[in-house]
Amino acid sequence: MADDTPEFDLPGCLQRVRAQDQAAARELVEHLYPQVIRIVRSHLPRRVQEEDLAQDIFLKMFTRIDQYQGNVPFTHWVSRIAVTTCIDQLRAQKRRPELRWADLSEQETEMLDKSMHGSGEYAPDESVAARELLQRLLGQLKPEDRLVLQLLDLEQRSVAEISASTGWNGPLIKVRAFRARRKLQKLFKELKEQEHS
What we know:
Arc Repressor Mutant, subunit A; mainly alpha
């Protein structure tokens, strides 16, 4: 069955946007929205309004559109703006310097205890608790470290894909991921030690 939707003409749309065509600007936002909101959702703590951040990203895109030179695909250029905006938002947030054992829910403490004793099988409700615990631990990392682990380990992106969306080179990504994993292990161990103190 043939697809009746016409192919999106990105170069033509960009040309019309640069000529101040409001309809083209709306078309561009509609075309890029799924990509931008996916980046926002995967890199931002839940307490931040994702729609507000997506609007900030589009605002930056439109104010900088004349800087786009076509050296990389436009979607990669927008991805970099989105990722950088998310990192800036994470930096701007005031977060607690450490996560304490007392801050964990009962499910999270059970999950931590189970993982420390090598029990690898989790029930569906435990998977949710494990994911929440991981997000809380990731929240203790620097924004760049959190981002690299999110992309590399959780989203299973390649080093080349991460490089294209962040602008970081391959060795930097690998070193940052190695250090972030060590920091995450240290935080996990410290949290477990708090249980016994």
